[in-house]
Amino acid sequence: MAEEFAVRMVNVTKTFGHVMANNKVYLELRKGEILSLLGENGSGKTTLMNMLSGIYFPDEGQIFVGGREVTIASPHDAYALGIGMVHQHFKLVDVLTAAENIVLGLPGGVVVDRKAVAKKVRDICSRYGFDVDPDKKVYDMSVSEKQTLEIVKTLYRGAEILILDEPTAVLTPQETEKLFAVMRNMRDDGKSIIIITHKLNEVLAISDRVTVLRHGEYIGDMDTSKADARALTDMMVGRTVTLNIQRDQPVSPQRRLEIRNLTVKDKEGVVRLDDINLDVYAGEILGVAGISGCGQKELLEAIAGLQSAVSGSSVKYRPTGPDGPAEELVGQNPRTIAEKGVRLAFVPEDRLGMGLVASMTLVGNMMLKQYRAGKSPLVDRRHPHELAEQIVRQLEVVTPSIDTPVRKLSGGNVQKVLVGREIAAHPTVLMSAYAVRGLDINTSYTIYRLLNEQKKAGVAVIYVGEDLDVLLQLCDRIAVLCGGRLSGVLDGRTATKEQVGYMMTTLEHKEAGI
Amino acid sequence: MTNHEPLIHIARRDGMAWWRAWLIRLAAAVLALIVCALFIYGLTKLNPVKVYAAMWQGAFGSARRSWITVRDASILLCIGVGLAPAFMMRFWNVGAEGQVLMGGCATAAVLIYCGRALSTPALLLIGAAASIAAGVLWGLVPALFKARWNTNETLFTLMMNYIAIQLTCFLVAKWENPKGSNSVGIINQQTQAGWFPSLFGQQYLLNVIIVLALTVGMFLYLKYTKQGYEISVVGESENTARYAGISVRRVIIRTMALSGAVCGLSGFIAVSGASHTISASTAGGRGFTAIIVAWMAKFNTFVMILIALLLVFLEKGATQIASQFHLNDYASEVVKGIILFFLLGSEFFIQYRLRFRSHTHQKEAEA
């Protein structure tokens, strides 16, 4: 029986601090098949594969390759066993050519036999249908070329087992088709392939079998021919967990933000947010769900004036309701927005890299948005000082003093400082991105309580989250993003986890917006 | 699968009482003197104590020598103060050398072309203004490119130095006096027009007053003003700065203008207040030495006073022992180098602690 498996991972466990990234996970990869490893963000897919490729070492469990139990302590060991991984972030040297990158780190003399390398590269390419120019420099390559090069690199090193970590995230649909074609060629040549993904249609299109992880645990596997999108979604998101988060009925919600035709392109001209139409009401919590990188960050930053939007986009701010005066937020920056009297609070995803100044003290961070107040050229330190003391007292921030740099605080306390400051400014719109990521249960509930208090005070609260249970039990409405588009808005009280999960991965509800 | 613990573990300290930090620095200084003594004795068989005494003599042996030391330290300090805001912003301005030279050239031009027509106070005012303008210009060019196209400021400011040096050489040739000397000579030697006046009989007192005023002013600016706060935020994270509504471009440009202005003014002090001439060596590498001053002081302008004095003291002392004991120049440079090495190295032990592999750990691993 052992012969039929290329890889078997049995009861593999890995913890980081007190976080259990993988808990007794089971995985089998048969010879000559394509296996999808499916799961939400943070479900432990990449961690599991990193243990197979020698980047992490498992705390517990066994790994069998070709029926033999093995110890993989380094990527070198993995290659010796014929396992090669293509990471999400490419590991290439920009100034070297394709061929140089391929032989980099391989044993051999000082002199590289370029002709021999080029020949072997061309052999691999013609065999599987790759298109790689051995003499092209990496900095001249497109993203898809770099990815191809990474795959060729692993094949050159004799990999029989390939792991691709979300390879399609950076590809256009045409490039994805091309990638799938070569993956099939490799499979037909006897290679075994694992593809990490959270896109259901791709799972169904490319793989022979699928293994599902959730919250670091093995949920099950099945043949793709017997699977459908609904069944996989259920496995991926799981049963609803009751969290007992308080949720009051919104009191006379009024439209405060009107988002119309909002489209955002990044520096490379790639559309990140595509024609979003959405209303945000005062006195409610609007949840935003989606696989990470589907436009959540762009949505919040476009509202906050940190991200420029394509012309024709509009975000209207109505402080006194739908019939009152309006302020256009698109085309402004955080400073002009504040000067217009729009009290916009924003708890960004990157707390220490954007919301706070890591090396500054609590007091210094309190001033960040208010330091301009007053005509004096000197900063006022008295008020921030009082504010810092107040926040430490009210939110029970654990810190040696208010003159401690915030980077020395623990993650939960950092978030309390940030949320505390944003709320202290008496916002009318409060946006938060992954506000409870990495926080312990108690701190998470503190954050939910604070958001609920703001909702009660008539603030329009936007909560971008990744935990569907929380979204379903905290939010009044849930906007679901998929690939930069709004795939629908659901009522938080009636929506099911499967519904949200399905809309996160499929774009058929596109017209249901607003 | 055994995890080998390295023999020495380097861990960041959480902070240290100020007196312990100074104790470490003091210990480093003592160690440096001991190593230097061994070096001196081992190589030259001279009495190290006498050599140290000579170093002291060289820097502070007479009132005149003391004033020269203070004069040179104040120019070095002034440049360091000029670098402080740029460095706070994590803008690596290594172009102080050029900014000082351009300030010096502007001052020399004022002294040469207006020396007969204007009184000394007017010359000083115009000279100061011209040197500031020149320094600002030299600082702004890389800042504009950085703000607009995110060019690398280190390379840019560095290359601006070479332009400044060549420009100075050109001006020296143009202003040559007397012809054929290949130097400008002492400007306005007869009239002393545009020279810093003596205060209370001290020729260099005005230099010291100006630089100390700048030192205090810059300290207050960086620590207590809104603009200073903006500089800290931009230096720490441009993302946070944008989030807070700070215009990163404007802060970069404004701060580099300030940095260039103070560096340019250093050139004014060097020409009007000290050498009364201009040459490509007017800056004399101090634009680079000042980088050490600014860094060692962690951009605290008051600490810079100490560092600038120390560096100039070492330089004067090294020159003195070289001539007094007929030592090779390099020998005294080695002494200077050893002292600096220990003092800079001590900062490592203030920032980090070393943990040696404990035996208990080893036993655990074996068990």
Description:
The complex is a heterodimer of chains A (514) and B (367). Chain A is α/β, with parallel strands linked by helices. Chain A folds into three domains: 2-237, P-loop containing nucleotide triphosphate hydrolases (Rossmann fold), CATH 3.40.50; 254-343 and 428-512, Rossmann fold (3-Layer(aba) Sandwich); 364-425, no CATH class. Chain A contains 17 helices and 20 strands. Chain A has a six-stranded mixed sheet, sandwiched between helices. In chain A, strands 16-17-18-13-19-20 form a six-stranded mixed sheet, with helices on both faces. In chain A, a hairpin with a 2-residue loop joins β4 and β5. The longest helix of chain A is centred in the middle third of the chain and has 16 residues, at 173-188. Chain B is mainly alpha-helical. Chain B folds into two domains: 16-61; 63-312, ABC transporter involved in vitamin B12 uptake, BtuC. In chain B, 73% of the residues lie in helices and 3% in strands. Chain B is built from 14 helices and two strands, in the order βαααααααααααααβα. Chain B has a two-stranded antiparallel sheet. Mean pLDDT of chain B is 86; it is low at 360-367. Classes of the chains: A alpha/beta (514), B mainly alpha (367). At the A-B interface, α10 and α11 of A face α8 and α9 of B.
